[in-house]
Write the structure tokens for this entry.
Amino acid sequence: MKAYKEMSREELLALKEKLNVQYQEAKAKGLKLDMSRGKPAPSQLDMELDFLDVIDSNSNFKTQTGVDCRNYGLLEGTPEAKKLLADMMGVSPDQVIICGNSSLNIMYDVVARSMILE
């Protein structure tokens, strides 16, 4: 197919019509696509309902080292979380970075830092 900038007005209009037909055919299928990333199924969410009953206002929200988990915690992550993940990955806790709750933010930070020229 030619690049759009190389097409005549008539070719562009013909292509537009062809694409509109394809669009209407796809639309007529009535698909309900959810393209969001990492969205669990209702059965997966239901499986975790008991976790909602684990803590209440009488629970102890402090880590073993005294950090109050109701607040932002520590910049490098709580030692307990670092140890848990280190054990799961077979590394030492000092090799684990606990960031915020968004993997996209972490990826952005890594890419942004790698693009900084010194």
In short: The chain has a mean pLDDT of 87.
